[in-house]
Every structure is written in C-alpha cells, then in structure tokens.
Amino acid sequence: MVRSTRYFAMSGALLLLAALGIRNLPGVPGYMVRVLIAIALCLLFAALVKAVRSDACDDATPALRRRYLREFLPPMIGYVVAVFLSVWLLGRVEAPLLRALIALLPVPAIALAMRAIVRRIRDADELQRRIELEAVSVAAGCVSLGYLSAGFLQLAKVIDIAASDAMIWVFPLTCIVFGVAKAALGRRYS
Amino acid sequence: MDSRVRELREAQGWSQGELAERLAVSRQTVNAIETGKYDPSLPLAFRIARLFVQPIEAIFLPTEH
Has residue A43 been placed in a domain? Predict the structure, then answer.
C-alpha cells in the first residue's frame, strides 16, 4: 500500500472513530457528527479507490501529489480541531455575535482545503484537468439536481428536512459525488 | 488518433514513468496517449515531437474512418 493511501485510510478511520466517540457526548450537535462521518467516509472511499486501482496514484505528477497532500491534509486536520473547538465553545458562549464567529471557526480551514483542490486542478496536466473538470461538472450537476428535487418535495410537504442539515451537507455531498465521478471517468483513460 | 509514441519510447528504452517525467505529465496521460484513448493538445504534441526529434505528422497518424 502506497504512503498516500495509508494516510487517507488512517485519517478516515481516526475521524470515524472520533465522530462515533463524541456522538453521545452532551452538547455535541448531531449535524457536526454527521459532517465528520461524511468526511471520514470520503477519506476511506479515496483510500479504497487508490488501493483497488493500482494506477490511480499515477493520476498526477509526484511533485504535484506531494504539494497537494502538503496543502490539503493540514487544513483538514485543522478543520476537525476547529469543529471540536467550535462545539465546545458554543456550549459556553451566549453573545450572538461571538456565537456567529465561533460557529464559523471551521470555515477558514475548509476554504484552505478548497484552495488546495483548485491549485491541484489548475496545475494538473491536460488529461487530468479534463477528468477533474468533468468530475466537478458531474458533482455540481448531481448535487444541484438533488437539491432542486428535494426543494420541490419539501415545497409539496412530502419530505421535511431541517435547513441546517440541508446546508451543512452541500460540501460533503459534492466531495462524495466528485470522488465517485472522478474514479468512473478516470477508467475511460486507463 | 493512432500514434507511434509507444514504439518511440521503447526504442529509447524508457518506461512510461520516465517519459511522463520528461514531458511533465502523469503516467496515466502517457498511457492514454499510447493506447489511443486520449489525443494530446497541440503544445503537448509539439513537446513529444521535440523530445523524439521527429515531425508531429510522423508520430501522430489520423485514423481512417
């Protein structure tokens, strides 16, 4: 198993254990646990794809892969720390403005992770850029269509999903669909 | 589009990884070009031609339809 696959598998497993561990703690919002589980599943799925497809690790030049891991993993670790810190602080702070700032603590880390993804796509070679952009298009299309459909169902009172749950799942869902689409599209060129 | 990239690479004794490194692309891209699953852009085709010291039309051959 190559090093990056091990990193993804270990991070995913640790995150999953952490999410399950804090699930029943008092004051921990359910949506936070669900987001952590979603990210953990994304990481485990990435590890699985890399392990199953032996050539999946060759989808970028070694220098680009190293830079991506260097830029992507620290923000994701920071994100997990920020989520825990945010949850802990929200149980102790009442002032609305301060609560807003604390609630947004995990956002800069995710913004940095998104920056790493954009830089990877921008600096990938032409075939990889094509695969990544097609996967981004598929993910954007599927998630938009899913949310539009859910919106219509909600308007018709067929389903009833809390707005906070719906909003918090946009990014993890996009990542999951992107990963699946990229694995499927990449097979066309293998 | 057919290409002679594999033949030229093997003549040099390079692996796909070595050629990918020389062209600053991924190994998957080299493999896709060699198997005809991906047609390179003009700038990449020129880089390949320069590397093998051959004209582009001697490396990439249009497929007859």
Answer: yes
CATH of the domain at B16: 1.10.260.40
- Out of B17, B32, B40, the one facing A189 most closely (by C-beta) is B32
Contact state of A58 with B32 under an 8 Å Cβ cutoff: no
- For residue A57, pLDDT beyond 50: no
Q: Which residues contact A79 (CB under 8 A, 6 or more apart)?
A: A39, A106, A109, A110, A113
**Tens-place pLDDT, residues A73-99:** 899 889 888 988 888 888 888 899 999
H or E element in which residue A124 lies: none
Assigned domain for A152 exists: no
- Prediction ipTM score: 0.84
The A-side interface with B (CB below 8 A) comprises 55, 58-61, 124-128, 186, 188-190
Average pLDDT over residues A106-127: 91
Residue type, A56: A
